[in-house]
Amino acid sequence: MTKDGTSALKPYESVIKAFACEPGQARTKRRIEGVPDLWLEVTASGHKAWKFIYRMPGGKPQTLTLGTYPAKPLANAIKDARAHKHAIENEGRDPVAERKAPKGATLGDWYQRWHVVAQQRGMKSLKSLQEGLWTRNVVGIAGLDKVAVADLKRQVIKDALENIAEEGTLIQSDRTQTLISSVCSYIVNEGNGVLEFNPCFRIPRRANETPRTRVLTEDEIRAVWNIPQSPHIQLTFRALLLTGQRRTEVAEAVRSEFEFGAMPAWTIPASRTKNSVAQRLPLPATAVGIFKQAMALGSHERVFASAYGPLDKETLNKAIVELRGAADFTVHDIRRTVGTGMARLKVQKETRERVLNHVAGKNASMTTAVYDAHDYDDEKLEALTRWQGELLRIVGEL
Question: How far is CA 90 from CA 55, 86, 87, in A?
Fold first, then answer.
């Protein structure tokens, strides 16, 4: 029982999950039984936040927000509360004073902190977020980086997203909203109450972003195969068509990833794949020839490199824009075309997913750096050989 006569919450995950705001109240707060100074607060809308409520010797009660539930589970909240209690009683440290955010901190200030944490966690899309959504949209169009966190109200963000939608696209606005929401969630968890709740919560999305289904026609496949660009760019597009691997995985391939023995293969390390799952790809004859031709063009460690340096994805994007004219296909549509082509050739779905490295979730747990001592090598090679024959028929080189 707490001092105000209300019962404490038992420290069980099921109890924490079921805890709800009392009817007619804006928020309800309960102490966690057996954990000094740890409380859980829930609002009428269902948001839950961990509170560490303490008093320094001779001081007034202070509140430190430890994070939100379920982002921070019960066990972590208990661990944090006990650590703060120990620091107060044994070291005389004041956790609020230590964690207090700089006065007038802006969204841009907090983005820099979030960015560091995202880098440490190995977030693969960080570069595109930095260059695209943050720099172009949040900073350039909306100017939200200069807004103090204390002024980050729901309407401020809604107005900013409307401006981004008008200047760019609805999809760009939605993706920027996701980025801002991630930063705001970080502030809620780490900002010691400077932002109590995420102001992006329940802001409606502006676009229904549906997966693309575009595949290239045979005429477009022939055009990409014979793209009028320098040899290293043309060979890159032929490798994309032959293997179906992702744009950056092909463009950034290095010589050490290839073996040209009895069964030639290309092993893409987990550090370079989108899903962080290593990919071993047995190579049919034509693909082997393409990669060897590219390597013969120079001595750079990167396979697809000119005298001016290695390729990047923007070079490939620009080449496709120049080629396609009024058509609407993209570099990524090449990958979808390969997958669709293998499906038409009756390649089993599991094998197609292995070839395209769509292995994820429960299947990823079975995957080592080389799919458990080359499991599926034969199936993948057969699939790619079938697709190679179809591709060569299309481009007239069979």
Answer: 14, 6, 6
